[in-house]
Task: structure prediction
Amino acid sequence: MKKTFTLLLIAGFVCLLTSCEKQEEMTVTPIFKEKISGYAQKGPFISGTSITIAELNNRMGQTGKMFDTQITNNEGCFELNNVELSSPYVELKATGFYFNEVSGKTSNAQLTLNAIADLQDAATLNVNILSHLEKPRITYLMSLGNDFASAKTQAQKEVLAIFGITKEIPQAETLDITKTGDGNAILLAVSLMAQGFRTEAELSELLANICTDIREDGKLDNTTLGSKLLNDARLLNLAQVRANLEARYQALGVTVTIPEFESYITDFVANSPYTITNNIIYPEMGRYGTNALFGDATTIKVGTYSLAADLPKGTSLKIVVTSERVAFSFFPDVPINFTLSGSTLTSVESGQQCDIKIEVRPAYSFFDYQNKNITIEIYENGATTPTRTKIIEIEEVS
Result:
């Protein structure tokens, strides 16, 4: 009898829970939006980008209701009309080519960015780097019982902390890189630091790794990822980025105001806890022999040498050689990734090795040499004063 009563009690409890769930689902008021519009921005996504909006339940699972559209211009804007939802929560996915603000060109491959939002009192839904990075963290926090609003606020705060930003800003899906305001400036700064000099595949991988790393504790524990952000951020030409964006929108016939993003990048570079790991490398040997740029040697013998350097992406190099006893050799070899003007070598492309053959000549009695030293001034990454200066004494031939 007790066993029967227990079973009846359990069954009644299950029915009660089921009834409550059904009642909760039944009391959800459908949402009707005459128009949902927004921007997909890395830089702006271009025409042909696919936009998918999926309805989510209160556990952030897809209900199966989806809406599809495309971006039909190069400003990144999209629009959906007459959208009826049973839940205020939606996920937006944008997949397409975009304007790369760093290179000033359209991307070579497609990129996918995501966002989740509450459309209860909104009809604007932008998707960008911030919305993409915060999404997995939001869903994890909600799985722990947090409500959507608090999870979203916490996730955004944690994402911004990666970039050393503590300022409170509006929700990511309301931000726009073509408008003034701190939030829009921060979005652009974060977008640039994530982009850096990476290919689309490298950018996708970096974003995925950051999302995975911060999902459960909200902190970027993988310092290698932080170093990747710092490596490229310190090399960005911020004036050129601004010019690239202004020229892009001008070509589209659109009047925009690019926000003051620069200070957020310079602050990150100056105060980042991460370590720079993409310094220019001067190998011991070059293609033509011992590398005169390697190490701190103060003497050199008569003979043939290399001036060689390995340049990570985004880096640049200028070398000024002062000596009457050094000749640049062009036959049968030519400079690799260097241009030569007088005694000044300038790198052509980052991400490549630079090398040139030089000959240290012996002293001839019929030449009136002023001294027997070689001065090599090394200017890295656009520096206006030498990053390093080598003064090397030539050992005379006995």
User: Anything to note?
Assistant: The chain has eight helices and 19 strands.
